[in-house]
Amino acid sequence: MEGFTLQQASLSIAEARQAIQHYLKSGKVNRAKLPAEIDKPSGVFVTLKKHNKNGERLRGCIGFPEPIYDLSQGLAKAAVSAAFADPRFPPVEEDELPHISIEISILSQPQLVDAPKQEIPRLIEVGKHGIIIERGFNKGLLLPQVAVEEGCDSEGFLALGCMKAGLSPDAWLTKNVSIYTFTAKVFKEVEPMGEVVEEKLGSP
Description:
By secondary structure, the chain is of the alpha+beta class. It has helices at about 5-25, 70-85, 120-125, 145-150, 155-165, and strands at about 45-50, 55-65, 100-105, 110, 130-135, 140, 180, 185-190, 195-200.
């Protein structure tokens, strides 16, 4: 979604927080209230990070890589799932919310990388591309910012994606593994309920 503005991102993040608060009180997922110009089918991920005196740590991250929902529905579902359904973490409790910052990633349509396996690393630009690694029922997705945060080069990023999918680190070299790339516009609160900025991703 190329025209996504900082103002629209701030509204979207506020609506993601509202969706979490609404679910805490009602147990229901409430569609986000977004203007028509951005409420279109879109892949979206919501990442939660908990802040304390020692910094921040991941508290949940779930989303939809394919544009199967309008943003108002996908954003709310992803926010609630990140808070309450990420299997890596216990459900977020109400007293945690003031200490949690929200990050949203608006995704492009994933594209299959149709190239010889040995050439794939040079087609993946660290900080620009996210990846999906898929083999049968095994599937792993990494957002573009993960490569930067982990200090990966493209081969390391592919290895990380394979492990996320439950495969060996070099599984991307095998014939029966499909690799998809996508791009994302990433916006985040610099602190819980604080200023929203666009994350500018680049090489580690």
